[in-house]
Sequence to fold (311 residues):
Amino acid sequence: MEPYKHIPVLLNEVIDGLEIRPNGIYVDCTMGGAGHSAAILKRLSPEGHLYCFDQDDYAINRGNLTLQEIGSNYTIIKSNFLNIKEELANLNVKKVDGILYDLGVSSFQFDMGDRGFSYNKDALLDMRMDTSQYLRAYDIVNYYSIDELKKIFYMYGEEKYASNIARNIVRRRAERAIETTFDLVEIIKQSIPAFARRTGGHPAKKVFQALRIAVNDELTVFEKSLKDALSLLNEGGRISVISFHSLEDRICKQTFNNAVNVKLPKGLPIRDADIMRHYQLVNKKVIVANDQELLVNNRAHSAKLRIIAKI
Fold:
């Protein structure tokens, strides 16, 4: 396994936003390289505890090595954060003081070419965050119908040329299986007009994002988990969410707004100031990386941070 350099995105903003209590209970739903987890654990007293979720064995092993150098008051849970409520209940944890989601793909998953997440490295089409699950990007590309492919590329990647790409995938796989990331990249490049390939970054970026989301059912999983996370907060507790594309951010924004805005029947003589609210937005405008962070961490360019508090 090749080494990777992990730089946690928006680290200072996340830590400040969580307002960590030394004796509190915190959850990192996306441990990955453990950059955020380590920063949280350093701020906890022995009475506090950190719970970390991850599905990837490599991440769990690396994260454990990092965290054990800081303290022992942490627990790593090998599970999808979809199961946050159930997994914590199994450990007799009913309420927590802070929860973090750092969405998307971990640094090492991009940097380790054999996982199939990167369009810049040739590998088998995989993209599974949990390598024990069955569905791979290979299965979607080689067996889904043309209409299913178009829907995935358009809905999850907002890919303008979804129809062309899906059509060419179906043609190519009729001749031979599409097995590797570079096989797919070649088809995508041939499906997009030359003038469109000259702008907007790598031509395969949107399709690879769409496939990754579909393989891991990321949007459905995130929406359910975030709603469960809100119900787990103690009074004064906070949730911080770092998203990297508009689909994730839209789910976060809508879920937070629904939690904050109390819906009442029309016509009731109640002033807005009299409504008892249970949550409030910590930042009404998304937090993004500053110029200094952008210089050293390319992955911070598309990051958006939203924070909500239980009151």
Notes: The chain has two domains: 11-102+218-310, 111-216.
